[in-house]
Amino acid sequence: MKFIFLSDTHFGANPMGFQQQKGYPEQLKELLGLLENKIKDYGDIDFILHSGDIADSASVENITGAVELFGLSVPVYLCLGNHDVTAENSLDLWRKYGSCFFADGNPDFSIVKDNVFIHVMPTHWETTPFFWATCQDAHFLPEQIERVTKLIDSNPDKIHIICTHSPVLGIPEEQTGFDTKYHYPGDEFSKGITALLEKYPGVKCVLSGHNHVNSHVKENGVHYITASSFSEVPFEFKIIEITDEKISMQTVSLASEVSFKAVYNFDKTLVQGRAKDRMFSGN
């Protein structure tokens, strides 16, 4: 299995409210055109996995616009992020106008290819599922955990990957230089998920977005990966390849190929990460 992983495009934003580097969501048409060229050059990409905030807010206009923009030559799968569910009827809107991003028409789904299961599990934030206003209480619903653990239990010889929007771990201090972990989701979510995964050694990787930062931490045999925003300079995506023997990741920038002037903040290079946050190959 070989796929492109990206996050936080925030289609419809003008400007992006939260950004680590300067965001250019108004240039997504060009950026996705460049991405399509890369896909054709590579020739072996199975699909694109977007870990959330494909849109800046939940509306018919944003959802249909995202569907049109992401009409690429390979399938595009989406894990809904908090910005994707800003309306109380967000789930209805996505099922009606954006279900093409879900493997089976539902926002919780699994992508199965070769020896790999990728379980897409949208993070929930408020007491109302599939709705976000202001709360950052990251959590999963019991039925989400039940669905995925049943699939893991019934396929113990497969490689299992989880994709959700919220990071499970914070950005480590050695990457940021800060005194504490950056963009930490809180103990209940972080420790709850890491404890759960200790029971399921078949889970090899967790893919997330939300923090707009490239990071990679391996803990108890699990690779925890987050991606920078595709709409922010230097317009990066990841290529992830999974075989029976190993998981490989590399980070690719489109900055040198854009036709517009993009301004990079060199005081915030932590966003692009260290070498290990951008590339690795191992079990």
Estimated share of beta-strand residues: 15-25%
The CATH topology corresponds to: Purple Acid Phosphatase, chain A, domain 2
Compute the number of structural domains.
1
Proper CATH architecture: 4-Layer Sandwich
Strand order of the largest sheet: 3-2-1-10-11-12
Q: Which radius of gyration do the C-alpha atoms yield?
A: 17 Å
Mean pLDDT: 98
Assembly state: single chain
* Structure class: alpha/beta
Helix-strand sequence: EHEHEHEEHEHHEEEEEHE
CATH class: Alpha Beta
Q: How much helix, percentage-wise, in residues?
A: 10-25%
Low confidence ranges: none
Q: Figure out the total of helices.
A: 7
Largest sheet: 6 strands, mixed
The count of DSSP E runs of length 2 or more, i.e. the number of strands, is 12
Which outline best applies? globular
Q: What is the assigned CATH homologous superfamily?
A: Metallo-dependent phosphatases
Distance between the termini: 15 Å
Task: Put the structure in a nutshell.
The chain is of the alpha/beta class. It is 23% helix and 22% strand.
Report on the structure:
The chain is of the alpha/beta class and 283 residues long. The protein has one domain (2-282): Metallo-dependent phosphatases (Purple Acid Phosphatase, chain A, domain 2, 4-Layer Sandwich), CATH 3.60.21.10. It is built from 7 helices and 12 strands. The strands form 2 sheets. Strands 3-2-1-10-11-12 form a 6-stranded mixed beta sheet. A 6-stranded mixed beta sheet has the order 4-5-6-7-9-8. The chain is globular and about 50 Å long. The mean pLDDT is 98.
